[in-house]
Amino acid sequence: MASLIILLAVLALVGLISWAKVNAFLAFLLVSLGAGLALHIAPAALLAAMYQGLGDTLGSVTIIIVLGAMLGKIVADSGAAQQITSALVDAFGPRYLLWTLMLSGLLIGIPLFYNVGFVLVVPLIFAAATRYRLPAVYVGLPMLAALSVLHGFLPPHPSPTALVAQFHASLGRTFVYGLVLAIPAVILAGPVYARTLRGLVAVPLAGFVAPPLPASALPGRLNSFLSSLLPVLLLGGALLLKALLPTSSALAPLLTLLAEPAVTLLLSVAVATCSLGLARGQRMSQLMDSYGLAVKDVAAILLVIGGAGMLKQVLVASGASQEIAASLRGTGLPPLVLGWLLAAFIRVCLGSATIAGLTAAGVMLPTLSQGHVNPNLMVLAIGAGSLVLSHVNDSGFWMFKEYFNLSIKDTLRSWTAMETIVAVVGLAGVLVLDWLLPLLHL
């Protein structure tokens, strides 16, 4: 019964937004209330779940998205994004633009959480699309595919890190195996699939598209790279030092602070304000006005993400996710395939990749202890399944849709299809490794 209610809730959400043209935040409110009552949640508990979902979701992403939007705005307006794109293309040539952006996404995505990486690379994508007069989705999908794969497969991202701990897997081996799987997944979901979307027309948010500047007006290349990629450098450096230094080190508290994405982005915005703004003759009032415009651009995105969080929490509070997972345990499927399916099913129902992964892990843990299953591969199988079929109940879906200003249909065709390719290739890679590793005695 719970599965049917969740299915009807998702269909209602799609119908309200796509056909009735109801504002997405209002649609989430209506569907969350309806689904909660249908799942027999008491009214007081239902409202508490909605408030919790809204608060928890926005609490974890608001600072990151707002600061990322400010950094993206100054990176775009100053010409730093244009300078970075020029440098990369000069190094590899415009013929390999998609592959260059894919590689950039892989490098940026290793230390950065997905939301941070997304708002950081969007100005680079739009700058490249504008300069070479190419469709924004065609240019951007390879880079965003790289970020998504790393979010689902590799520590230190939240879900894989938590799964490594639950399954007592090896962080190092999981990282190496995940990187091996990430390469074919990103290639197929990024540059290869993007070629089928070359005719997809999108008009990105104006706040993230700066008109091309003459070369003489651009900041220096070193300044552009350091100011724009400072979050990557700070966060990556902090994580590396935390891994190398003992926990009793006097630097440990400072490194813990620097490893927090919100702090890293705040420092980066402060540096960029000086290096890309004040140092180039702009007044502080001009920069603050520009930042205000950036916040206006992402306000609607934040509301939609909060709405998705409300619906997710209502379904979690009802116990529907546990009920669905328990009903699939007696299927007799191979454990790695079952883990992928469980994560995929919960992901489709609830939207959150992290919750899908953690819920599937709780179900699969007893199975893992009873059989000869590689725990590192189970982490990756569940991580891959948790990315499948991102749709209207996933905040990542709405970030992509709103930033690129796409219709629901085109977002499903581009973003949802890309995520699904990643998930399927990930499962195929896990099964190949499961067959190959014993032969190699690894």
TrEMBL record:
The keyword Transport applies. It is a multi-pass membrane protein. The chain crosses the membrane at residues 30-51, 58-76, 96-129, 136-154, 174-194, 225-245, 257-279, 291-311, 337-365, 377-400, 420-440. It is found in: Cell membrane. This is Gluconate transporter. Keywords: Cell membrane, Membrane, Transmembrane, Transmembrane helix, Transport. PANTHER family: GNT FAMILY GLUCONATE TRANSPORTER (PTHR30354), HIGH-AFFINITY GLUCONATE TRANSPORTER (PTHR30354:SF22). InterPro entries: Glcn_transporter (IPR003474). Its main location: membrane. The keyword Ion transport does not apply. Belongs to the GntP permease family.
